[in-house]
């Protein structure tokens, strides 16, 4: 059963159904700056039900997005066009909601859209928190990514059977992934190819130099984007903080502690900015 914060009848559709969002606010927000959740491959606001609630409990407004199909962007960049369109979608929601600035949490593929959005309009994004992010392991290829993803699927089903604590959110995540793969096979394939092509390091450094707060949270047991490669790519000049956890790829929506860690990182970035 879906939680009250993310039930389907509370989802708003924008741009002829291309963007789907859940926009939830606490009774007493502690900041006017909302948290956007930029989703990974196949993910929807429903997958982030527990994460959304953690941010609400911390006094933060949350806007979680998902995308139906792909859209063409008129912006000419070095990034895959469909990912540029996702970055533009984040900025469109910011404008439509009358928001001055947003903090963006990008999970997995969602890191790509988050970084692109900030690169297009740095003034609209206050902080970027990239969780298990795509785009930071150096040269990749679609066959290599597909191989790693296949191993991850096996690990996910084993965890579903053996880890009682994460069984409910894992089941929710796997069902959504299957639903997405069956209903949007072409979109899923195009997105996977894009993930294998993108490298974000230079852009993240440019954003950091412009004053956008930047932090990365990654797991030492991530089967998709290996920690060793991530650490070789990510330099201290790109980020304000790097948190390494003994975890896998999808802990953002599997463990409450991950959302709490992001809340602490956001608070740290806010405090750092206030001192400058």
Uncertain runs: 1-9
Alpha-carbon distance between the two ends: 46 Å
Number of strands: 8
Secondary-structure-derived class = alpha/beta
Notes on the structure:
- The chain is globular.
- It has one domain (8-274): 3-Layer(aba) Sandwich (Rossmann fold), CATH 3.40.50.
- The protein has helices at residues 49-57, 81-96, 110-120, 142-162, 167-183, 185-197, 201-209, 227-233, 256-274; strands at 12-14, 19-24, 35-38, 62-67, 102-107, 125-131, 213-219, 241-245.
- The protein has 9 helices and 8 strands.
- The longest helix is centred in the middle third of the chain and has 21 residues, at 142-162.
- Mean pLDDT is 91; it is low at 1-9.
- Helix 1 (49-57) crosses helix 9 (256-274).
- An 8-stranded mixed β-sheet has the order 1-2-4-3-5-6-7-8, sandwiched between helices.
- It is α/β, with parallel strands linked by helices.
- It starts with 11 loop residues before the first strand and ends with a helix.
- It holds the Pfam family Abhydrolase_1.
- Residues 34-227 form the AB hydrolase-1 domain.
- This is AB hydrolase-1 domain-containing protein.
- InterPro entries: AB_hydrolase_1 (IPR000073), AB_hydrolase_fold (IPR029058).
């Amino acid at each position: 059963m879906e939680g009250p914060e993310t039930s389907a009848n509370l989802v708003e559709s924008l741009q002829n159904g291309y963007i789907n969002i859940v926009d939830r606010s606490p009774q007493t927000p502690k900041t006017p700056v909302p948290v956007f959740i930029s989703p990974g491959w196949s993910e929807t606001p429903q997958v982030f039900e527990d994460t959304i609630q953690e941010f609400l409990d911390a006094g933060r407004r949350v806007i979680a997005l998902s995308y139906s199909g792909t859209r063409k962007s008129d912006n000419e960049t070095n990034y895959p066009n469909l990912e540029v369109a996702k970055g533009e979608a984040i900025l469109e929601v910011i404008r439509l909601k009358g928001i001055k600035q947003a903090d963006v949490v990008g999970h997995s593929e969602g890191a790509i859209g988050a970084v692109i959005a900030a690169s297009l309009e740095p003034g609209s994004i206050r902080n970027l928190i990239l969780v298990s992010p795509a785009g930071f392991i150096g040269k990749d290829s679609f066959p290599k990514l597909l191989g790693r993803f296949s191993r991850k699927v096996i690990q996910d089903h084993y965890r579903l059977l053996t880890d009682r604590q994460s069984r409910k959110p894992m089941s929710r995540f796997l069902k959504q992934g299957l639903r997405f793969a069956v209903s949007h096979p072409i979109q899923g394939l195009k997105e996977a190819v894009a993930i294998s092509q993108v490298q974000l390091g230079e852009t993240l450094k440019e954003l950091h130099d412009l004053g956008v707060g930047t932090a990365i949270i990654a797991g030492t047991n991530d089967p998709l984007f290996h920690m060793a490669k991530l650490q070789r790519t990510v330099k201290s000049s790109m980020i304000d903080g790097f948190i390494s956890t003994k975890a896998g790829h999808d802990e953002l929506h599997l463990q409450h502690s991950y959302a709490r860690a992001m809340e602490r990182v956001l608070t740290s970035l806010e405090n750092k900015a206030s001192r400058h």
